[in-house]
Design goal:
The structure holds two protein chains of two kinds.
Chain A: H1 2-32, E1 37-43, H2 54-65, E2 68-74, H3 81-93, E3 98-101, H4 107-116, E4 121-125, E5 135-137, H5 141-156, E6 162-166, H6 172-187, E7 192-196, H7 202-212, E8 217-220, H8 223-235, E9 243-247, H9 253-258, E10 262-268, H10 270-282, E11 298-301, H11 309-315
Parallel strand pairs in A: 1-2, 1-3, 3-4, 4-5, 6-7, 6-8, 8-9, 9-10
Antiparallel strand pairs in A: 10-11
Helix pairs in contact in A: 2-10, 3-4, 5-6
Chain B: H1 2-70, H2 75-92, E1 97-104, E2 109-112, H3 128-135, E3 141-142, E4 146-147, E5 160-172, E6 175-186, H4 187-195, E7 204-208, E8 214-216, H5 220-224, H6 232-237, E9 241-247, E10 250-258, E11 265-271, H7 272-275, H8 277-322, H9 337-376, H10 381-396, H11 400-418, E12 424-426, H12 427-444, E13 449-455, E14 463-465, H13 470-479, E15 488-497, E16 500-507, H14 514-522, H15 537-548, E17 553-558, E18 564-571
Parallel strand pairs in B: 13-15
Antiparallel strand pairs in B: 1-2, 1-6, 3-5, 4-5, 5-6, 7-8, 7-11, 9-10, 10-11, 12-14, 15-16, 16-18, 17-18
Helix pairs in contact in B: 1-2, 1-4, 1-8, 8-9, 9-15, 10-11, 11-12, 12-13
The chains are: A alpha/beta, B alpha+beta.
Chain lengths: 320, 582
């Protein structure tokens, strides 16, 4: 009893001291550890794992540099504005810090995004719509389209006309690209037709289009369609003398360009867009010298410049 | 005192700890930076060794393909064997090698692994590796990385490669012609080795060719996209070792090492601020520990100072209490040996002091009691003699009633005087005593004066010390009634006012002058041995003040021809002052 009485005060003092120091160290540790940001990404990649996607690499590299966690969602199966809004609602319910998304180019979605952007910082990737509260990171797709249009004009050497296989223009980048191509063709007085192919029995529809008019070139606004008809060209003599052009690249299109099956493809630096979109959301400059950073690169890839050292990094990124 | 002790101990300790902490913290910074620099150099050295080994293996494989397979065979006869052996070599080194191909001097593929096919329209002779091999036939030519652009891609996959080309002799049935052996190394191996360099959180390593082209850079895409800049030309100018440079507003360390055969430069980049992150953690730890020690010291100081000062404080309180009631003093025996010793000594001293004081009190009380008894004993013996003489005279004159009255009064007088030894009697008894005395004296003085005693019956039980009124009455008879004829009067009056019991002895004698009053109060009164007992005023005054204390006593109110009033003032409670017992 006496012993307890004697050591009571020192024990109490020691306990308080240890408590204070523990609190201090915990506080210091907590201060030193930055909070992890949550970024939700909703893009139109074809597969859930996105494969070798430069856009995803760009987003991941940027997220890694700011200690952010990513959640990717694909718009693969999203077909309507309502489905898009439902997907967004689910994602917003997770309360991410930032939302990077490729928006449908519709007024309804714009209104919805205006509403939710007050709670969550939104950055549009690759496409922009008229929303007051969101930034957008996009390439100059009109310019990209014009560059490809010029290539088409150069290759056609006055032969006409040109067939443009358009899409639903769900995304603004496709629409801007289309406008660029049209502008180039019009500027050079090249005749062109604009048609759309439904997803069922594409081959039949395509050859029906070719029956009535002899086109020198076909421009595809959809990458999947371009890939499909490029493979078809390899085995179907009817397409032998038709130049095929496309918008956007994937690993399957590269050999087709290399073999000259695809005459030219317009490519934008998706890594750049992905990387910059994270920092745009983050609200901090990527570099002190940001004003002097390059704009998003747009190139037209052909068989002849595929292995150009300036294009290697964009077309064949080294990182796995 | 405890605060000063704690503060002094703590200040000294904290200053010492802070000094030591600052010193060690700085030492930590310096040594941490040195360690980080050495670590960076070691890491880059290791990358150099690994890459060097890799390139040597690469060249050895080329040598093996040439000297062990191609040079000893006849291409016109052994093509199948050559291709099998090249395939075997490739299979056994599949982690590092991608392709091995043999071209003749015209760029035709004459041997290679199965399925190898040069793309349509591609002319190998126009390629740099082919041209270099033809120009300098005696050396091995290692290229910078590039995407293979001459062979058909397998499964649509384009590979980054580093090529090693050399001029070789090809035996065509005895006819020796020159050709080019091309070995493709997988670029991913260089990437793996370089990426394995651990240079802190945002640190990285990259490899430059001797002309500043990038062999590998982990942020190549950022650089190509224009999102990041590296000043490769500046780095090329650096000698091997560590260099510090500012980049994008931050300071960073550049560690360079040049590879032997290729001349490639391995560059390690590490952030100085990140290098200081570890020292920061260390500093935090050091300062945390210092803080912990400081807090412990404050606690220990508080504890020790409390252990020292608490017994002293209690001792101080106990010593202060000595001034008050010695009986209530409890001196604690605690604390250190010295303080305990002090306590014991004080205890002993207090005990001695208490004994001494008890002795003094006892002796003083004894003295006062003796004095009181002595004063009370000063009843004039002549009075007894004269009274008895008067009684005898009355009996002889056959005035028996008077004699009886006188003797009776005398007996009562003495009975009250004795009072069974009590010094305190009631006011009633005291005044009865006075009445007996006055009865006797009135008879002796043949009714020369009258007397009356008045008091409120309610006051009769108030305790008073005995025999304080009679000496004053005696004075009134001897010093006042002597000078009057038959109309002398003595009035004894007791009353209470404001808790003070006043007993006035009033006579209508000749009174006193102011000087006489002062002499009386100062005790300069000349005692007439023949006419009084020699006690009187001073006797009563001393006894009243001895018993009741200074505020109480006797007042004299007198003027010539106006009589005299002597007023006794005592507390109505009758209690004597502290420490004085009746």
């Amino acid at each position: 009893m006496n012993l307890i009485k004697h050591i009571q005060t020192p024990l109490l003092v020691a306990s308080i001291m240890i408590l204070i120091v523990t609190c201090l160290l915990t506080f210091a540790q907590k201060s030193a550890t930055e909070e992890t940001l949550q970024i939700s990404v909703i893009v139109r990649e074809e597969t859930e794992d996105f494969g070798q996607s430069p856009l995803r690499h760009g987003i991941e590299d940027a997220a890694s540099s700011i200690n952010a966690e990513l959640t990717f969602r694909s718009l693969k199966d999203i077909r309507s504005e309502q489905e898009y809004i439902e997907l967004l609602s689910k994602e917003i319910a997770n309360a991410p810090d930032y939302l990077l998304l490729e928006p449908f180019d519709t007024d309804g979605l714009a209104n919805y995004l205006d509403k939710i952007s007050k709670k969550t910082k939104i950055v549009f990737v690759n496409a922009s719509i008229s929303s007051r509260n969101a930034d957008a990171v996009v390439a100059d797709n009109r310019h990209a389209g014009k560059m490809l249009g010029d290539e088409v004009v150069f290759d056609s050497r006055g032969k006409a006309p040109v067939l443009i296989i358009k899409t639903d223009f769900n995304y603004s980048d496709t629409r801007y690209f289309y406008n660029g191509v049209i502008e180039a063709l019009k500027d050079n007085g090249i005749a062109f037709d604009v048609r759309q192919i439904r997803s069922d029995d594409q081959q039949k529809q395509f050859f029906q289009l070719l029956q009535n008019t002899t086109y020198s070139s076909v421009v595809f606004l959809d990458t999947t369609q371009a890939e499909y008809f490029a493979h078809l060209k390899k085995v179907d003599d009817r397409l032998e003398h038709i130049n095929l052009y496309g918008f956007g690249i994937n690993n399957n299109l590269l050999p087709l360009i290399d073999e000259g099956v695809m005459r030219g493809v317009s490519v934008t630096d998706q890594y750049h867009i992905g990387y910059q979109s994270v920092f745009t959301a983050y609200g901090r400059p990527m570099s002190e010298d940001e004003e002097n950073l390059y704009p998003v690169k747009e190139i037209v890839v052909t068989k002849y410049n595929l292995f150009d050292s300036n294009h290697e990094s964009l077309l064949f990124p080294k990182q796995n | 005192m405890q605060f000063i002790l704690s503060l002094s101990f703590t200040l000294v300790a904290v200053i010492a700890i802070v000094g030591i902490t600052v010193f060690y913290s700085r030492q930590f910074d310096v040594s941490s930076q040195r360690i980080a620099e050495n670590n960076s150099v070691n890491v880059i050295d290791q990358v150099n060794i690994n890459l060097d080994n890799y390139m040597r293996d690469f060249m050895k494989l080329s040598d093996t393909a040439y000297y062990n397979i191609l040079k000893v065979a006849d291409i016109s006869r052994d093509r199948g064997t050559i291709e099998n052996e090249l395939q075997l070599l490739l299979d056994t080194n599949e982690n590092s090698l991608l392709s091995i191909a043999l071209f003749d001097k015209n760029g035709n593929l004459i041997a290679g692994q199965a399925g190898m096919q040069v793309k349509e329209g591609v002319d190998p002779t126009s390629k740099e590796w082919f041209v270099n091999a033809g120009k300098q036939i005696e050396i091995l030519h290692i290229s910078e990385p590039y995407v293979d652009d001459i062979f058909m891609p397998v499964n649509g996959t384009y590979n980054w490669v580093i090529s090693l080309s050399r001029s070789v002799e090809i035996n065509y049935n005895g006819d020796v012609q020159r050709g080019v052996l091309l070995v493709y190394s997988k670029f991913s191996e260089i990437e793996r080795i370089t990426k394995s360099a651990s240079l802190g959180g945002s640190g990285y390593a990259y490899v430059l060719s001797d002309n500043g082209a990038t062999i590998f850079h982990p942020k190549q895409q950022l650089i190509d996209a224009g999102l990041m800049r590296e000043d490769f030309n500046k780095v090329l100018e650096y000698s091997d070792g560590i260099h510090r440079e500012d980049y994008d507003g931050t300071s960073r360390l550049i560690t360079t090492k040049t590879m032997g055969y290729t001349g490639w430069k391995i560059v390690g980049v590490s952030s100085v601020s990140e290098m200081q992150t570890s020292p920061f953690d260390n500093r935090l730890l050091i300062w945390g520990l210092s803080l912990l020690v400081c807090i412990f010291l404050v606690g220990i100081n508080f504890f020790i100072s409390s252990k020292i000062t608490t017994p002293l404080r209690r001792l101080d309180r106990a010593i202060s209490a000595i001034e008050g009631d010695l009986d209530a003093v409890r001196i604690p025996i605690e604390g250190t040996y010295e303080i305990q010793h002090l306590g014991k000594t004080l205890n002993s001293m207090t005990a001695s002091l208490k004994a001494l004081m008890d002795d003094v009190v006892y002796e003083q009380e004894h003295v006062r009691r003796s004095e009181m008894i002595a004063l009370q004993s000063q009843i004039n013996p002549h009075f007894l003699y004269n009274t008895l003489d008067s009684a005898v005279w009355m009996i002889e004159a056959e005035r028996y009633d008077g004699a009886i009255t006188m003797i009776t009064s005398l007996a009562r007088l003495f009975r009250i005087s004795l009072s069974q030894g009590d010094n305190i009697i009631s006011l009633e008894k005291e005044l009865e005593h006075v009445e007996n005395y006055l009865t006797i004296q009135q008879m002796r003085y043949k009714n020369k004066f009258d007397y009356k005693i008045t008091y409120d019956e309610r006051l009769k039980d108030i305790p008073v010390i005995k025999l304080i009124v009679q000496p004053l009455v005696e004075n009134a008879i001897y010093h006042a009634m002597e000078y009057v004829y038959d109309d002398g009067e003595i009035h004894v009056k007791a009353y209470v006012s404001e808790d003070i019991l006043s007993i006035d002895v009033i006579d209508n004698g000749p009174g006193m002058t102011e000087t006489q009053v002062k002499d009386l109060q100062d005790g300069v009164h000349k005692v007439d041995k023949t006419r009084g007992s020699g006690v009187g005023f001073q006797n009563v005054l001393q006894r009243v003040q001895m018993y009741y204390g200074e505020p109480f006593g006797l007042d004299v109110i007198s003027e010539p021809d106006e009589g005299t009033t002597i007023r006794i003032r005592i507390p109505v409670t009758g209690k004597g002052k502290e420490g004085v017992h009746a």
